[in-house]
Design goal:
Elements lengths: L1 H9 L5 H28 L4 E2 L4 H8 L4 H4 L6 E3 L3 H13 L4 E4 L17 E4 L6 E3 L5 E4 L5 H8 L4 E2 L10 H7 L6 H4 L6 E7 L5 E5 L4 H6 L9 E8 L1 E2 L4 E7 L4 H14 L6 E10 L4 E10 L5 H7 L1 H5 L4 E2 L2 E2 L3 H11 L5 E10 L2 H14 L10 E9 L1 H9 L14 E10 L5 H21 L3 E2 L13 H5 L1 H14 L4 H5 L7
Helix pairs in contact: 1-2, 2-5, 10-14, 14-16
The structure holds flavin-adenine dinucleotide and 2-acetamido-2-deoxy-beta-D-glucopyranose (5 copies).
């Protein structure tokens, strides 16, 4: 399209007003071509990939959602080191090119971590080192890792980290946004367990951010999204590997309210035994051609059969339609259940709300979703699920112990429930209707939760729709503090102007 318009312009075939925008496009195109050429000559031909090449396509195909894979950038920098990222940032910002950054590419919305030409994509997927410190207390992770390979690499060292509950989800975006783990009730967000970030700043400088060096940046990166820096290494706390127990249990959908009551009892027990992860997924299953509800369970303490049975007892008491719970399974095995339920390569959107612990709002959101998606069910590949995940007060206490978060959460908020409304479909022609149904549910849920006095304002960056007001949800004081940090580390607002995707302060 663009190059066709460009040639029309060159041959003087366009009307003046159209020509003006095309001239603008042409300047951008030239800038982008310059950026990519300079990148290639300085970083080398294997580090800069162009559309049409196998290497380029392989990276583009590895985005999680189909919408992200459809976006074709001018070129793609496949960075292998912090120095590559630093060099790339210097070249791209000097050339005035727009860019995006991706780690494993699991954020679902189009443009979250990819960019259409003339933009340039910086791809960190090859930065996938996993290094365990000599004392086995700290693990250094390249941002391009996915959690499955990380857990595999850590097993021989007998350690684990506060990481994802899916093998395919990425390290970079996950920790940047916070990161809910099966270990979160005990140890808080993944980001609460970062001891040091290696970061490339807007001027290309590579710095460390930790409690003693750039402590303001260190704090800001726990909610900074695409505003403060590109993280090229996360150094995180390691914990002893323990035996695991868990899996999923399916239930008759008529048991939904009972399951929810059971989940509330589970959340209330976490202060005594914060070693259990659990969530409830309630929605429409493609496979069953019917509504479904299932619970996922994970217990990561030592093999204390009685404590885990006690912790989950109410959820285990409801009769199951299927049950995959096992003992001594590894983290990859637990996560593979999530991966089966959430395959990549499909059209997909996540959306979110945070709720106080209340059965009625959960039941209401399920029923509202059932109605909102009714007209879409049966269209190719359509399914939707509302997953309800505890944010226990023990998690928020761990966050506070680690120095707090700029995201506006505190133990005083009490136990909370995080909603992830996750929708899947196959046809582009259903995009608008799916998006409208998602919005209908989120708007209804917001209004209804407010009415019931069970809405918490927080919006989780890693689940939010592109236009959900994530930063407003952190509160003015936090946003002002983040802006101050941004102005200090990016005084010319280079990232604000050129770095597309994520959420902007
Ligand atoms: C199947 C599945 C399972 C999931 N499970 C969980 C879960 O258990 N817990 C949970 O909390 N979330 C979960 N999520 C959500 C997940 O946290 C987000 O999708 C997260 O953004 C993924 O990280 P990524 O590296 O793959 O993201 P990307 O899409 O690569 O990046 C996400 C955002 O972060 C920015 N970014 C990425 N890397 C960097 C970097 N190094 N420096 C600066 N900016 C960067 C990108 O520009 C983009 O805006 C899941 C998602 C999926 C699809
Ligand atoms: C960068 O993106 C903005 C929109 O976000 C656009 O206005 C601008 O022209 C783009 N610049 C280049 C060089 O492509
Ligand atoms: C791992 O830890 C377990 C329990 O703490 C211990 O029994 C085992 O010997 C350890 N294995 C290695 C390789 O250190
Ligand atoms: C913090 O950064 C400084 C400066 O780069 C570095 O010397 C120190 O080792 C870092 N601390 C941690 C915990 O990584
Ligand atoms: C689910 O429960 C309903 C209501 O009790 C019952 O009518 C239905 O047969 C059950 N379905 C299955 C598959 O057990
Ligand atoms: C869907 O589930 C309901 C409730 O369990 C049940 O009554 C109904 O028969 C199911 N429908 C199909 C098509 O399986």
């Amino acid at each position: 399209m663009r190059s066709y318009a460009t040639s029309l312009l060159l041959f003087g075939l366009l009307a003046p007003s159209r020509a003006a925008t095309v001239a603008h496009d042409l300047r951008e195109e030239i800038a982008a071509r310059d950026c990519c050429q300079t990148l290639q000559s300085q970083l080398g031909p294997t580090a800069v990939l162009f559309p049409g090449s196998a290497g380029f396509q392989q990276l583009v195909n590895s985005y999680y959602s189909a919408q992200e894979s459809e976006i074709i950038s001018q070129c793609r920098v496949s960075a292998h080191s912090a120095q590559d990222v630093s060099d790339a940032i210097k070249i791209i910002t000097k050339g005035g090119c727009n860019f995006s950054v991706r780690s494993a590419g699991h954020m679902t919305w189009a443009g979250a971590a990819n960019i259409q030409a003339p933009g340039v994509a910086i791809d960190l997927k090859q930065m996938n080192a996993v290094d365990v410190s000599a004392d086995k207390k700290v693990v250094s992770l390249g941002p391009g890792n996915s959690w499955g390979p990380v857990y595999d690499a850590l097993d021989p060292f007998n350690v684990t980290v506060v990481g994802g509950r899916s093998n395919t989800v990425g390290v970079g975006g996950f920790i940047l946004g916070g990161g809910f783990s099966n270990l979160s009730p005990a140890h808080g967000f993944a980001s609460d367990n970062v001891v040091n970030y290696q970061v490339v700043l807007a001027n290309g400088r590579i710095v460390n951010a930790n409690k003693t060096s750039n402590p303001d940046l260190f704090h800001g990166l726990k909610g900074g999204s695409t505003n403060l820096g590109i993280i090229t290494r996360y150094d995180v706390n390691a914990f002893p590997l323990t035996p695991k127990w868990g899996g999923s249990r399916g239930y008759n959908v008529s048991q939904g309210p009972a399951i929810f009551d059971a989940m509330i009892k589970f959340i209330k027990k976490l202060p005594q035994e914060p070693l259990g992860g659990g969530s409830v997924v309630w929605g429409y299953s493609e496979d069953l051609k019917n509504d479904t509800i299932f619970g996922s369970f994970a217990y990561l303490g030592a093999d204390a059969t009685e404590s885990k049975a006690q912790l989950f007892s109410e959820m285990l008491d409801v009769p199951a339609t299927f049950d995959t719970i096992r003992t001594n399974t590894d983290q990859q095995w637990l996560d593979s259940e999530v991966d089966v339920a959430f395959p990549g390569g499909l059209r997909r959107i996540f959306s979110t709300l945070t709720l106080k612990v209340d059965r009625e709002i959960a039941v209401g959101i399920y029923q509202k979703s059932h109605d909102a998606f009714a007209g879409l069910v049966g269209k190719p590949g359509v399914s939707w699920t509302a997953s309800f995940q505890p944010i226990s007060v023990t998690h928020l206490q761990a966050t506070e112990r680690a120095g707090g978060t700029p995201q506006g959460l505190s133990p005083a908020d009490g136990d909370l429930i995080l909603l992830n409304l996750n929708t899947v479909w196959l046809e582009e022609s259903d995009d608008a209707a799916m998006q409208a149904a998602v919005r209908e549910v989120i708007n209804w849920g917001t209004k209804e939760a407010k009415k019931r006095n069970v809405l918490h304002p927080w919006l989780y960056i890693n689940y939010a729709l592109p236009d959900q007001k994530v930063y407003d949800s952190y509160g003015k004081t936090n946003v002002n503090a983040l802006l101050k940090i941004k102005n200090k580390f990016d005084p010319k607002n280079t990232f604000g102007k050129l770095w597309k995707g994520g959420f902007k302060l």
